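Write out a record, fold above all:
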Amino acid sequence: MSTVSCANAPLCENVALPYWVANIHRGRCVECDMSYGRTFAFANANAGEACPVCLLDDNDLQYVTYRCGHRVCASCFSTVRRTLPGHLPPNPVDFGCILFEDEYEIIMDEWLMVFPMQYQLFNAVANEYHLRLIAFNNSKRTLMSRCPICRVDGGPCSI
């Protein structure tokens, strides 16, 4: 199977994307397509240039340029997160479910039948976590649209 790099690879580091997935999502991986919805224009670091956010001055850094002209490195710009800062997603084992590796759906169905109260408590906590994660990502998306240096609205340049 033929693979390509995601068009936003400096953000997601996905360099082994199946060609057919990239073809569906305009050259992006599914996560970048859902999180950003566009392909960003990346630029290489200039000699001696440091990211104004993290202060790294590595010549291999890729930069995202905002409409105001300020640049930040891709790792500082990237806000794709799988968990809330300081929080982990709820673990079914903490709610009395047996430890499992495979057959998630079968175990969860059995857990519902045998221990319905623990199952419902886990689902309530998991739903609250996911709602907080959505709110967190929405606020990050709003922050991403502003330059971290001068706070000008407009977002980074796209291709």
Summary: The beta strands are 3-4, 17-18, 42-44, 62-65, 71-73. DSSP finds six helices and five strands in the chain. The chain has a mean pLDDT of 80.
